Amino acid sequence: MENVTFDYKFYRIPKRFFKEDMFRDMTNAAKVLYGILLDRKCLSDSNGDAWRDEYGITYIIFTIEEIMNLMNLGNKNVNKMFKELEEHGLIYRRH
Question: Domain total for the chain?
């Protein structure tokens, strides 16, 4: 790949998801979704207090439909991944 310039944009996925036993049962798809959500959170963080709740916690708005389109998955699969992330204490959703 010499002399080829790419504008790489990527999602970060914590290495601990692949190293720690507590995450062994989590699907790789849920791990990727977490990376996508983390990217969105970083964007909210960069916008300061506008995306913080009354407790100072950064939040994001990302619909199920947006995630379905981005990941090319159905509603059932996306909701299953969200459940995995919640069960591992990685996210909290307000409905």
Answer: 1
